[in-house]
Design a protein that fits this description.
With 652 residues, this protein is mostly helical. The chain is built from 28 helices and 4 strands. Pfam families: Dymeclin.
Length: 652
């Protein structure tokens, strides 16, 4: 294969792959490795090609799993890769200009092999495979061999945090960079940036993906891994000092959204005979790990599209989420989660706490912009939730932004297009709103932001509406969708909790938003009456027969009455705290006043109905005094005048 490009169909018969997976031990100093690693291959760009790649190489991987205990070729390959990465850091004295290419190719082969090894054995068995050498059987099971996994993990982390330094915008004063640029100028008319950027992008991507593959052990365990060997290496020893740098680099990879190079852009040509191997991304594992986070849910089409645009950003984000959710070690908390919980803005000059050695600074403005732009991705929504929930610095910054609509609108679109999203994406978006609405300043400010022409809202043309009113409309629509489709009690509860958080600061509600609030109450009222009637009929029918068990209508009634009470509390809170700011809500309340009649004497709602009943009675009286056949404008004028005249102490 060597320098020749290979097709997927040729891989099972490739002589170099057969030798790698064969019965003959290969020393790490064997010239074979130079031949094996001098390959070019067109990158698979879709899941179908990736599947073909896996199917074509599975026989090779299975053979290596079987014969590695006698040959130790996996360990030799890893040692070759480690030696190549050491050469990667040598300055201008290094004469081998192909070590970047070969280091990348070696890492890709390791990644593909690890994916198969991890899927077929326990961590203990995997660790044992790292100890096999050229002799038959494992070598001394101790420091030197056992450290090969740790050395590889540490090397991958170093690649991720140090490879970006090879980009031309940084460290251009180093002799190493000047030498590498000079070599590239002699070989590429496209310039240093494009040629070197492509290969360093590919190495960074492969390092991130290989770490994800290492962490994919969880996919093959039904229970949460609490004593993982890989986790222990990442949280202790040589990897630990890189914690904050790794988290920071992964965040910046997500922020930058660097586009992937075109297929074949990183391919080098070497003037030797031989063959190539393969190239691809282990995104199947990445998707699987995201499934772990979404508890089996299916990622959205938008997420897949974003991953194709910037695989390094997508894989970096996924790795960050996996690291942040690793189980705490028995003796220490998860350092990656600590880093995510405590990082600060670059403009924040306050001192770091000495109790957290993993704290760092990052540009919050760039992070905020990326979060706003990437919310179509499940992973980005999970990151936003995690930061708002766990990092008080980020939460304070977000709530202080004067352009909060840039973040809220994408979240509302997720809820609006609920049919196209998986349930876990919807839940994350809803809980983000719940976190935001816990802040009174947020609840006030969203009614001051006026939006024009919301094109994605199809139920009604909204030429001008406040962000607060739009939020109410979308949340109510989500409740109604849930009532007719999923019927998830907890989704109801979270939606109503967000509305309840906002209700005391409702301001100048759009007439359509006010109508939808009362319409939702009407829908709940009808459902309550229907279930009550079914319960009554069932009870009557059971008097003549003891054979069939009664449906549990009491439980259904309790759930509906709980939701109705929350709706009444939301309306009551608005009337009590901001009656004079919401004439449209009072108008809608009066227009549908008959809906509330049945709840005035209901024992579950009597207390909460007092204020609502008072408002209905007070404004109905004023409208009767004004005469019949009043226009909408005249009714609203009377309501505004009455809101000023109504003594506030009468509302409890």
């Amino acid at each position: 294969m060597g320098a020749n490009s290979s097709s997927i169909s040729e891989l099972p018969e490739n002589e170099y792959l057969q030798k790698l997976s064969g019965s003959e031990p290969i020393s790490e100093n064997d010239p074979f490795w130079n031949q094996l690693l001098s390959f070019s291959f067109t990158t698979p760009t879709n899941s179908a090609d990736l599947k073909l790649l896996e199917e074509a190489t599975i026989s090779v991987c299975k053979s290596l799993v079987e014969k590695n205990p006698r040959t130790g070729n996996l360990g030799s390959l890893i040692k070759v890769f480690l030696s190549r990465t050491k050469e990667l850091k040598i300055s201008a004295e290094c004469q081998n200009h192909l070590f970047i290419w070969q280091a990348h190719n070696a890492l890709f082969i390791i990644c593909c092999l690890l994916k198969v090894f991890i899927s077929r054995m326990s961590e203990e068995e995997l660790q044992l495979h790292f100890t096999y050498e050229e002799k038959a059987g494992p070598s001394s099971y101790g420091a030197e061999c056992e450290d090969l996994i740790e050395e590889l993990l540490c090397c991958l982390i170093q690649l991720i945090v140090e490879i970006p330094l090879l980009y031309p915008c940084q460290h251009t004063d180093s002799n190493w960079w000047k030498w590498l640029c000079s070599w590239y100028r002699g070989r590429y008319s496209g310039g240093v940036t494009s040629a070197l950027g492509d290969i360093t992008y590919s190495i960074s991507l492969e390092a991130v993906t290989t770490l994800i593959v290492f962490l994919s052990c969880q996919l093959f365990h039904k229970e949460i891994l609490r004593e993982s060997i890989i986790h222990r290496y990442l949280m202790h020893g040589r990897c630990l000092p890189y914690t904050s740098r790794l988290v920071k680099t992964l965040l910046y990879n997500f922020i930058r959204q660097e586009r992937s190079p075109p297929p074949g852009a990183h391919v080098f040509q070497q003037q030797t005979d031989g063959g190539g191997l393969l190239y691809g991304i282990a995104s199947g594992v990445a998707t699987g790990l995201w499934t772990v986070f979404t508890l089996g849910g299916v990622g959205s089409k938008a997420s897949a599209q974003l991953e194709q645009c910037s695989p390094l950003a997508s894989q970096s984000l996924l790795l960050l989420l996996v690291l942040a959710n690793l189980t705490d070690a028995p003796d220490t908390p998860n350092p990656y989660r600590q880093a995510i919980m405590s990082f600060k803005n670059t403009q924040d000059n306050t001192a770091f706490s000495s109790s957290n050695p993993h704290a760092f600074q990052i540009n919050f403005n760039s992070l905020y912009t990326a979060l706003c732009e990437q919310q179509k991705s499940d992973q980005a929504t999970l990151l936003l939730y995690m930061l708002l929930h766990q990092n008080s610095n980020v939460r304070t910054y977000v709530l202080a932004r004067t352009d909060i609509e840039n973040l809220v609108l994408p979240i509302l679109e997720i809820l609006y297009h609920v049919e196209e999203r998986n349930s876990h994406h919807v839940y994350m978006a809803l809980i983000i709103l719940l976190i935001l609405t816990e802040d009174d300043g947020f609840n006030r400010s969203i009614h001051e932001v006026v939006l024009k022409n919301i094109t994605w809202y199809a139920e009604r043309v909204l030429t001008e509406i406040s962000l607060g009113s739009l939020l109410i409309l979308v949340v109510i629509r989500t409740i109604q969708y849930n009532m007719t489709r999923t019927r998830d009690k907890y989704l109801h509860t979270n939606c109503l909790a967000a509305l309840a958080n906002m209700s005391a600061q409702f301001r100048s509600l759009h007439q359509y938003a006010a109508q939808r609030i009362i319409s939702l109450f009407s829908l709940l009222s009808k459902k309550h009456n229907k279930v009550l009637e079914q319960a009554t009929q069932s009870l009557r029918g059971s008097l003549g027969s003891n054979d069939s068990p009664l449906p549990d209508y009491a439980q259904d009634l309790n759930v509906i009455e709980e939701v109705i009470r929350m709706m009444l509390e939301i309306i009551n809170s608005c009337l009590t705290n901001s009656l004079h700011h919401n004439p449209n809500l009072v108008y809608a309340l009066l227009y549908k006043r008959d809906l509330f009649e049945q709840f005035r004497t209901h024992p579950s709602f009597q207390d909460i109905m007092q204020n609502i009943d008072l408002v209905i009675s007070f404004f109905s009286s004023r409208l009767e005094q004004a005469g019949a056949e009043l226009s909408v404008e005249r009714v609203l004028e009377i309501i505004k005048q009455g809101a000023v005249a109504l003594p506030k102490d009468r509302l409890r």
